[in-house]
Design goal:
This protein is mainly alpha-helical and 192 residues long. The protein has helices at residues 3-13, 17-37, 41-50, 68-76, 81-89, 92-95, 102-123, 134-141, 152-162, 166-179, 181-184, and strands spanning 61-62, 66-67.
Length: 192
């Protein structure tokens, strides 16, 4: 599967611009981690792009919901098992698929963090991710009422599983998202 095909699946199943932005952010972060570890950037990026494509239609994280339904759809579309396994592993508590590979660990580590970074960028007066620093993310990190849906413990565990210091992990993901600022709608544009 190539990126245009993956993006078509995302658009077919996801109307929410915020959820699409999340998947694009995870794609950017996964590509950065593929480069960091010397892995297949295309495969890792597509895994990030597709990881939540079914969430809007099947929001219950359960046996008959996300990501299990998505895995079945991706199999029907010919997506490779390595990608599907990684997607299933980002919800181990539901799927029972334990994270083993670096790609699986990276997906888990970046998923929640991208949401926090987006939230930090959106509360800046400029609404520009290029103005965000690790220090500002760490400051918001401590405020549990800020982006309360972001599971900070998952981010910490994910970074530890990757063997990456938390601040370095945040910087890698922030840099990746900054490179994709325009596509993410975080380059200082007005709220969408």
């Amino acid at each position: 599967m190539d990126r245009p095909e993956a993006w078509n699946i995302v658009c077919e199943y996801t109307d929410s611009s915020q959820l699409r932005r999340h998947m694009l952010a995870v794609e950017a972060a996964m590509r950065a981690y593929a480069r960091h570890f010397g892995e297949d950037e295309e495969k890792w990026g597509l895994t990030g792009l597709l990881h939540d494509f079914d969430y809007e239609r099947y929001p219950d994280v359960a046996e008959n919901g996300h990501p299990n339904i998505g895995a079945s759809i991706l199999r029907e579309r010919g997506v490779d098992e390595e990608t599907i396994r990684a997607i299933l592993s980002h919800a181990t508590e539901v799927t029972g698929v334990e994270r083993q590979s670096k790609m699986e660990q990276a997906l888990y580590a970046v998923d929640e963090l991208t949401g926090l970074i987006i939230a930090v960028a959106l509360v800046r007066p400029s609404r520009d991710i290029r103005d965000v620093k690790v220090k500002s993310i760490r400051k918001k990190w401590k405020t549990k009422a800020f982006a309360p849906g972001v599971n900070r413990e998952e981010v910490e565990a994910g970074a530890a599983d990757l063997g990456i210091d938390l601040n370095e992990h945040i910087q890698i993901v922030l840099d990746a998202m900054t490179e994709a600022a325009t596509e993410l709608g975080l380059a200082g544009q007005e709220a969408s």
